[in-house]
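Please, structure for the following, as tokens.
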Amino acid sequence: MAYVKFAIEELPLGVVFPDDEYNAHLCKAIAAMETKQPELAEIKAIEEKREAIWNRIQELKDKGMRGFAQHVSTQYQFQLRDDGALNYPWQDCDFVRVPGTSQFYTCHPETKAFEARDLDHDRPKVILFATGRAFAQRNARLLHLTTEESIQNACGIMSAQIHLLRSRLIPQKDGQLLAYAYDMVKSEFETPALRLQSILDPDFIHEGAKRSAERVFGPLIAEAEFDRAGRFKRENGVIVGEKRSSEDMLKRIQNTVLVGGSVGCVIVGQATRHLVSLLEELKVDSETVDEVMKSLTICNFGPTTHIPIDSRINYLAFINRHDEFVYAGHNTGPYLKESKATNSILISHDSPENAKESRHWTALIEGPGVSFPGADGELVFDPDATHFGHNMKQYMNILKERGFQALFSDILGQPKSYCLGASLDALIQSNKLDVTPKPDAI
């Protein structure tokens, strides 16, 4: 097997503290993997250095996530505005439509081919938002690809993620599972900038997220004209068309689950915030807006930053406690403490007393990281195979083992608005969901 070699700045924690000896040790160990697996003593030494840099990063986060994000921004040599947020000049330009011929796509269950598919508004639907490797045409691992190769790569990634979701968590009978055609950014800085701006300017909505909102939600909320890119046609700034009736709108939007992966988690959060702006533009009454938002569910896999989510939306973030890409930008420290205190992988974002009424949750799972116990119980070092703990296949395998298929089936069968906390509690009480942490994780 050929192992990919990394420079320090390409490592998940390499930009945060490039001078830390963990990063240099990690690069050296990965480069040596072509000839041999590191000895157990060396793996343990790497783990000690990993724990040290994680503590160093957590100390910086504990001083405030805004200061942490500004520190990382300077490491990228990003400029900051006077208000401390990113000076983000490339945010409104240079997009490539992916794939380009239809608005929605799925993965053929047998051939795995990426196929155009119409959205059936009368059925439950799961809509996938692309991960970072599909969102950005250029990043540290894909600089050699042409535009066409990047598009094909993105389609392959989305097809694989649909297959993983369908085979692990969302059976075909429970609803349609689709990826939407989105706009791939060309700048290699777009992904880290998007993560950092989510902390530094929580109200910021990327132009790509606005396009996504119109493409995904437009037909659900309005009888309107759309351009070839799936966006609302406007005349003198006014949408050409009419809002749907409240009854029709809620019927179309209920049982809709939005799935984000990595930086796609940021896009889905911003797209749903832009949905509120679209509903206001259409002059939808506030009661209907509330019901629309309460009918939506977001499930994010490996969010790599703090993501502002509308408080009315049902939200569940899945985080591998050993995921270095998540740890590089998200403050998981409080979740780790709460999981230990409650002996549960599920953490409510509200007070424990109001958990059943809570709509925002995090599930802290125990997936493999840079190193992990092998079949014989001994530590194995293989960050390439686990993608530094950020491997979506491993995320979904763990969730399947814990019974989360039952949660997705429950969500897709909910009548209009519902509360995620109540659904989680019912599944736990009926022993359909295993939320007890593994002993070695505590």
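Residues 40-62 form the longest helix (23 residues). The longest strand covers residues 314-320.
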